[in-house]
Amino acid sequence: MSRDNKKAAGDRRRGVLDHTEKKTVSSEERYARKADGMSEEELSGRIEGRNAVIEAYRSGRTIDKLFVLEENHDGPISTILREAKKAGTYVSFVSKERLNEMSLTGHHQGVIAQAAAFSYAETEDILKKAEELGEPPFIVLLDGIEDPHNLGAIIRTACQAGAHGVIIPKHRASGLTPVAVRASAGAVNHIPVARVSNIGREIEKLKEKGLWFVCADMDGKRMYDLPLTGPIGLVVGSEGSGVSRLVKEKCDYIASIPMTGKIDSLNASVAAGVLMYEIVRQRG
């Protein structure tokens, strides 16, 4: 082989090696960019890999959501799914592409868990707090708030409005993710947040303890015309569809917020805040 041909062959080999090296660096940089700007809470809340997720469950850590590859559920994955069922974790079966997009490590092994960034309370803790303060209970119940920023904002307002606690559902709703905790601006340290399997059933239990309930809906009576005093639960629905029909049927009153603008609705956290402070005004 001539010197020129050898040089060309060497260049091609180096080109292949350079391309491979660039591809590896690009992959590392891709995961680094995902983690860039994330807090330690966010990074610690993301659990990837079969053994890591199994150990998280066995240690008693609260897992808000579990993302599992939609096929090939072998022994370890089946074990994780059993643990998730016992813990009442919301499980989402997703494609490999989706898991790859979510992964911070690139080694998810078909499963990624999102752990709660803060511990949940029990409904009894909320009632006990009201009792200790000598006040009629004031509880905010969220029926399917999916945006963690909205959840955090509502928790923050509930804390400032003097609510004794917030109740959220386990399924089809945001949990206490790092984003929600950060959006609460520290309020989660001062107001208990409970998580229940079914908001409707929880309303029935609380009614037995003397609470009555008002939910937010455009078709209700003006909030100013309702008696929002005494032991009360305020129910706020999801960002898109509002309070579900079954939950609405369990409420004693339906309250609407007067609006004169051309837009027919408010952001969920804003609507929650408006109603909370009408309750504050009347209870005051």
Strand content: 15-25%
| Unreliable segments of 5+ consecutive residues | 7-36
Shape: elongated
Number of strands: 10
What's the number of helices? 11
Structural class: alpha/beta
What would the average pLDDT be, to the nearest integer?
84
Straight-line N-to-C gap: 94 Å
CATH topology of the largest domain: Alpha/beta knot
Helix content: 40-55%
- Main beta sheet, described? 6 strands, parallel
Quaternary state of this entry equals single chain
* Top CATH class of the largest domain: Alpha Beta
| Named CATH architecture of the largest domain | 3-Layer(aba) Sandwich
Can you tell me the number of structural domains? 2
Return the string of H and E elements.
HHEHEHEHEHEHEHEHEEHEH
Radius of gyration from the alpha-carbon trace, in angstroms = 25 Å
What does this protein look like?
By secondary structure, this protein is an alpha/beta fold. The chain has two domains: 34-115, 60s Ribosomal Protein L30, Chain: A (2-Layer Sandwich), CATH 3.30.1330; 123-283, Alpha/beta knot. The chain has eleven helices and ten strands. Strands 7-6-5-9-8-10 form a six-stranded parallel sheet, sandwiched between helices. The chain has a four-stranded mixed sheet with strand order 1-4-2-3. Helix 7 packs parallel to helix 11 (268-283). Mean pLDDT is 84; it is low at 7-36.
